[in-house]
Design brief:
Largest sheet: 5 strands, mixed
Helix content: 25-40%
CATH topology of the largest domain: Nucleotidyltransferase, domain 5
CATH architecture of the largest domain: 2-Layer Sandwich
Structural class: alpha/beta
Shape: globular
CATH class of the largest domain: Alpha Beta
Number of helices: 11
CATH superfamily of the largest domain: ATPase, nucleotide binding domain
Oligomer: single chain
Bound molecules: zinc ion
Number of domains: 2
Number of strands: 12
Order of helices and strands: EEEHEEEHEHEEEHHHHHEHHEH
Strand order of the largest sheet: 3-2-1-4-7
Strand content: 15-25%
Length: 323
């Protein structure tokens, strides 16, 4: 029976390719990990993806015919319908690569493509914190902010497959410049990159703070992790930066709560390591700003899949398309 057949998830990133063969309940039966070496160009990278898939098939001692489907989580922008990678910034030189067809032809296994944030949303929904939920918003907060919308039990794609760009909601009209070219996007205010930038500016201005000591006087060494460490040690400047950034994150979430009335917001990504310094302000902003009924309905929880979210998300892409 098809539903019992394993699937392969391939998480294609700018620096690494993670692959796993996964059974229908999300158990990882075999895994492979290698560097993308994106500078070698698309053919070499695709060959590594294929090698990696063949490796997990061999490791799990199944045949290619037994694998139901391959799911790929890849950096956007994508043309989902066509299965094409358009021009991902972290895979230089890739221009409208029909990755779905190439992988499908080489392996002889039906293949599905999804952007990495949407794949992660599907992964948390099927295997992680969102199991059994119908209305879930997934948000990842690390160097950038991304997300995916599970509405009425399904991933919402929008008119051109680009829905769920949570990081690029405008929060402050004339705020800091975002990587997308707009100003005041959530990502420019609340991502790890935004937090580090705020801290660097304060240290460069000579504001007395533990962050300067932790960075040994070199503002370039300041990361969001360092800011969090200073905050944990009680540094007022670091706490203020985090509180402000996480309040912006909460404003973004309150907007989503009013728009979509989710039962669950799942937050993943490296910044969730700061724990209540993230979740506290987010929950408070929702309580203060969203309608009472929606605010009382929604739970805000940490993602569960951790480092496996990439491969499990990619596998969930394959499973989402199976009958
Ligand atoms: Zn933006």
């Amino acid at each position: 029976m098809l539903s019992k057949q394993p699937v392969i998830g391939i998480d294609l990133g700018g620096t690494k390719i993670s692959t796993a063969l996964i059974d229908s309940v999300g158990r990882i039966m075999a895994r492979d990990y290698r560097e993308t070496q994106a500078a070698e160009g698309q053919e070499a990278v695709i060959e590594r993806m294929l090698d990696s898939a063949r490796r997990v098939i061999a490791q799990a001692e199944v045949t290619q015919a037994q694998v139901a489907a391959v799911g790929i989580g890849a950096p956007g922008p994508l043309d989902i319908e066509a299965g094409v990678l358009v021009a991902p910034p972290n895979l230089p030189g890739w221009d409208r690569v029909p990755l779905k067809r190439i992988i499908e032809d080489a392996l002889g296994i039906t293949t599905f493509l999804e952007n990495d944030a949407n794949a992660a949303a599907l992964g948390e929904h099927r295997f992680g914190a969102g199991r059994g939920r119908q209305h879930m918003i997934y948000v990842t907060v690390s160097t950038g902010i991304g997300g995916g919308l599970i509405l009425d039990g399904k991933l919402y794609h929008g008119a051109s497959g680009m829905a769920g760009e949570i990081g690029h909601m405008t929060i402050v009209p004339y705020g800091p410049l975002c990587g997308c070219g707009n100003r005041g996007c959530l990502e420019a205010l609340a991502s790890g990159t935004a937090i580090a930038r705020q801290a660097r500016e304060r240290v460069a201005r000579g504001v007395p703070t533990l962050m300067a000591d932790l960075a040994a006087g070199d503002p370039e060494r300041i990361t969001a992790k360092l800011v969090a460490e200073a905050a944990h040690q009680g540094d007022a400047e670091a706490r203020e930066i985090l509180a402000e950034a996480m309040n912006y994150l909460g404003i973004g979430m309150a907007n989503l709560v009013n728009l979509f009335n989710p039962e669950l917001i799942v937050i993943g990504g490296g910044l969730t390591n700061i724990g209540e310094l993230l979740f506290g302000p987010v929950r408070r902003a929702i309580d203060r700003r969203a309608f009472r009924a929606q605010a009382q309905t929604v739970q805000v929880v940490q993602a569960k899949l951790g480092k496996d979210v990439g491969v499990l998300g990619a596998a969930a892409v394959a499973l989402a398309h199976k009958p």
